[in-house]
Amino acid sequence: MSAGRITGGITPRQTRSEATGKGLIAGTPGRLKDLINQGELSLAGLRYVVLDEADELLSLGFLRDVGDILRAAKQEARGPERLQVAMASATFPAEIRQVAERFMEKPERIDIAPARSAEAAGDGDILGGATGATHLLVNTVREDLLDIAAEQAREMLRAPGGCVVIFCRTKALVKRRAERLGELLPGETVSALQGNMDQKKRERTMDLLREGQSRVLVATDIAGRGIDLPEVRIVIHLDVASTAEDHVHRSGRTARAGRPGTNLVLLIPEQRALWQSVRRGLPAALHPPMSREEAQIDREIQEKQGQRGQGGGGRGQGQGGGGRGASQPRQAQSGQAGQRQSRPDAPHRDGGSSGNRGRAPEPAGVGGGRVGPQPARGRGGRRR
Fold this sequence. Notes:
Layout: E1 3-6, H1 12-19, E2 24-27, H2 29-37, E3 48-52, H3 54-57, H4 60-76, E4 84-88, H5 94-101, E5 134-139, H6 145-156, E6 163-167, H7 171-184, E7 190-193, H8 199-210, E8 216-219, E9 232-237, H9 244-251, E10 262-267, H10 272-280, H11 292-310, E11 330-333, E12 336-337
Parallel strand pairs: 1-2, 3-4, 5-10, 6-8, 6-9, 7-8, 9-10
Antiparallel strand pairs: 5-11, 11-12
EC number: 3.6.4.13
Pfam families: DEAD, Helicase_C
Keywords: ATP-binding, Helicase, Hydrolase, Nucleotide-binding, Plasmid
């Protein structure tokens, strides 16, 4: 079956070519609606409509265009049995389900995640993501984020092939951190992906990753949906996701199609409250509740941050202070809470790249909730 692609960033001539004589067309709602209204895309004979990332497409930003397309498709169909609508997403909040039901008749819900991994909080809003991955969390401070990320990426990329996806909160952070990670990972091409890039630049970035010319991607949440990269070995959250749904979609970039993968959250004190909110909305398989020992470690880190911020010669309140404050990662595999070990903080110098720092954590081994190999030592100083 021939397939066409209709998106922004291609010429009208290319668009007409992509829309003509194809058995399957993938496209963005706005461009598809334009072609339908212009009479350049016929819906005659249309049998199936699929909304991928349906929760996003049914949100306010896309809802009007999607609704117009579905109504036009149903008008072309000679009978209700001739058009089948399917919606797919790892997350389906209740309010989005209510919108979806406006466009579907007697819908059936199909869960493809293993039952043990699909236990959602609340009323089943989140179905699961990266259910075969090893899920880790590391408490650290802002100054050490990039060194830890670089060391984890370096370890994961020792073997040929594969890639690493690193998520940041803003477009500006993506740019700065991609540049710095390029310095920390000599020999690796670090790519950036964010919403201000035009379609051609996005496609070029994805081609570099798929061809193996780049193996590290630093991105905003734009990379959390609709992007399929071969063998993402680890997803690193340099910033906590804004919502549980975003966290699930980010995490779903790894452990795809039965492959193993690691999902690592680097948690700094400033984002602890946000993480607590996000974690409450996650299935247990993605991040189990914090143990008493973990809560105690968190309290100790907070106390150290406060003491360093108040002491003479420190970096100031909220900036982390003179020590690293990172702890051994916690691990969850298939919903089982892993063990946790703590270790003393290593000294950290507030200076250039030659400053010594403590050991960066290495992801624990898969299975059984065991803590993996002890981490190797690394070098580095202030990050930005």
